[in-house]
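Here is an idea for our session: we take a single protein and study its fold together. To get us started, please write out a protein record for me. Once you have written the record down, we can walk along the chain together.
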Amino acid sequence: FAAHVGAAAQYEVSGRLAVRADVRATASNSGGLRAMIGGVVPLGRRFPADSSRKNLMDDYDSVTNGLVIGAASGAAATAALAGFYSVVFCEQDDCGEVFVGAVLVGAAIGTAVGGVLGGVIDSVIPGKRKWP
């Protein structure tokens, strides 16, 4: 038996492609925190057309918000994962310093990778300027 709790976000890039991100916590014997980023392609149909989406795509918007959202989510997810693993695998009596170091390094790596991925994903959305 396993229980999954999490959140997901999906953005429809076109009628035949969507980008989806999932963060899921699993409670079971082999539980943990999992994150996935992927594409969604509907089989045999298109995503429904939405007039509000077309109005949003007409706005000339920079990719700065994608950079910021990607950096923040990457920092939070990677810091939490690094902190979790530092506590699990720490073999010392006091793991406080190891935990703080792992969280800081994880946050820095997550900020860089998440910011780049957020900017790249945001730049492929039609109607966006390529860079701020």
Observations:
- The two ends are 47 Å apart (CA to CA).
- The CA atoms of residues 86 and 97 lie 10 Å apart.
- The chain has a mean pLDDT of 76.
- Residues 96-123 form the longest helix (28 residues).
